[in-house]
């Protein structure tokens, strides 16, 4: 008899992350509250948008693109029965970042055993259990709308996790940003209180009177009652025995709060996006350089986690040894036409290589598989031999001319 241990309890991991952001250890069932923070919303939208917009393509071990219409349709056109591939990848990414995990059940063709559709479930609708003997995972999905329960083995579940410490469950990067988010929210609250208040603090002077403790308290309460409901610019009505002097507020403090980019920069760093995308200046680099570095060095942190999971679940044992899945970013990072022409004329690219690099389909013309070569160049190890041969030919020609003169 197999025994199972639960990896996740009835309380979803998405509820747990909300409680962390709320500063409480008790789960708060209020939705994904992290998205209420504008920097988190922007950062998550950027990452999810980039993952959703770049198509996933199939390549062989020689880095050649392999056409697979069914797989491309599943991953790039329509992934679920009620959503496009973009919407599905976007939602999967959002949950994987905010909660550490995102799940979809795979529906397979009974004849070919190929995945033909996904069914998306929220983390709070998913229970993961591990067999203590075999360490195989079992996923239990509960549809919140219909109440139906589905039990699946790990081969029929696509589980996205970008950061994991045990290979089983993911960890949200937001768990490391609790202090930064709290600091940012406290600064915003301070600004809100300042601008919301119609009047700042001040000194109320009662002319010609000496007040005891109770009289001072009563005078303050009456003054607060008088200005209750007033807004900025509303007049204060006082008699000749009263004088109000507002305290000056150091606006440098407010400016410091408003210009503090520390929390925003930390959020960008933790989520691996350039700080300039969150309106923080990045010195000594152009936007083009920052964007290329982001796509080349940062996005693969997310790309590789996704493609390795789909390669494991979408390919059989034989296919895994021959093919791999990659995100096609050529629309942004691809070489321009002039660079491709130089590689083709230099003999590095074949004609078909050049077409593929430009996002075109290979041509069936046999000449498109050939490489160009220049007669102005010779192999490095043949230089001396070639030079000696040329000198010998010159000497022979010179001797022939001398014999003719004789």
Looking at this protein, list some descriptive labels:
four-stranded antiparallel beta sheet, three-stranded antiparallel beta sheet, 43% helix, flat
Write the layout of secondary structure elements.
Layout: E1 4-6, H1 13-21, H2 38-53, E2 56-60, E3 65-66, H3 69-76, H4 85-99, E4 102-108, E5 115-121, E6 126-131, E7 137-142, E8 149-153, E9 157-160, H5 178-196, E10 202-206, H6 213-226, E11 242-246, H7 251-259, H8 262-270, H9 287-298, H10 300-314, H11 317-320, E12 323-327, H12 330-333, H13 337-345, H14 351-357, H15 383-405
Antiparallel strand pairs: 1-6, 2-3, 2-12, 4-5, 4-9, 6-7, 7-8, 10-11
Helix pairs in contact: 2-4, 5-8, 13-14
Written overview of the protein:
The chain is an alpha+beta fold. It has a domain at 1-182 and 264-334. The chain has 15 helices and 12 strands. The termini are far apart.
């Amino acid at each position: 008899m197999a025994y199972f241990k639960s990896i996740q309890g009835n309380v979803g991991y998405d509820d747990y992350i909300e409680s962390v952001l709320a500063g409480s250890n008790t789960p708060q069932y209020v939705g994904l509250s992290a998205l209420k923070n504008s920097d988190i919303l922007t950062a998550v939208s950027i990452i999810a948008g980039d993952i959703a917009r770049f198509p996933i393509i199939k390549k062989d071990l020689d880095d050649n693109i392999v056409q697979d219409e069914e797989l491309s349709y599943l991953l790039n056109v329509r992934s679920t029965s009620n959503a496009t591939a973009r919407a599905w990848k976007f939602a999967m990414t959002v949950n994987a970042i905010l909660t550490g995990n995102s799940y979809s059940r795979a529906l397979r063709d009974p004849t070919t055993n190929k995945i033909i559709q996904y069914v998306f479930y929220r983390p709070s609708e998913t229970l993961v259990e591990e067999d203590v003997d075999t360490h195989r995972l079992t996923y239990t999905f509960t549809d919140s709308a219909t109440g139906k329960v589905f039990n699946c083995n790990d081969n029929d579940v696509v589980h996205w996790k970008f950061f994991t410490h045990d290979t089983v469950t993911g960890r949200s990067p937001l768990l490391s940003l609790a202090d930064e988010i709290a600091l940012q929210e406290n600064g915003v609250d301070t600004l809100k209180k300042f601008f919301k208040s119609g009047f700042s603090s001040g000194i109320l002077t009662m002319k010609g009177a000496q007040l005891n403790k109770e009289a001072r308290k009563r005078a303050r309460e009456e003054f607060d009652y008088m200005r209750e409901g007033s807004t900025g610019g509303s007049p204060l009505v006082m008699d000749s025995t009263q004088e109000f002097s507002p305290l000056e507020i150091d606006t440098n403090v407010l400016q410091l709060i408003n210009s503090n980019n520390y929390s925003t920069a930390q959020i960008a760093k933790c989520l691996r996006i350039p700080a300039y995308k969150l309106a923080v200046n990045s010195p000594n680099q152009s936007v083009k350089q920052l964007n290329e570095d982001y796509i080349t060095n940062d996005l693969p942190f997310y790309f590789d986690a996704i493609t390795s999971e789909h390669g494991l679940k979408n390919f059989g044992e034989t296919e895994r040894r021959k093919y791999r899945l990659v995100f096609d970013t050529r629309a942004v990072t691809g070489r321009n036409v002039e660079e491709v022409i130089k590689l083709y004329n230099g003999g590095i690219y074949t004609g078909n290589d050049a077409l593929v690099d430009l996002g075109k389909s290979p041509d069936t013309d046999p000449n498109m598989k050939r490489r160009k070569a220049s007669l102005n160049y010779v192999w490095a190890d043949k230089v001396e031999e070639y030079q000696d041969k040329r000198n010998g030919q010159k000497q022979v020609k010179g001797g022939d001319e001398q014999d003719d003169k004789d």
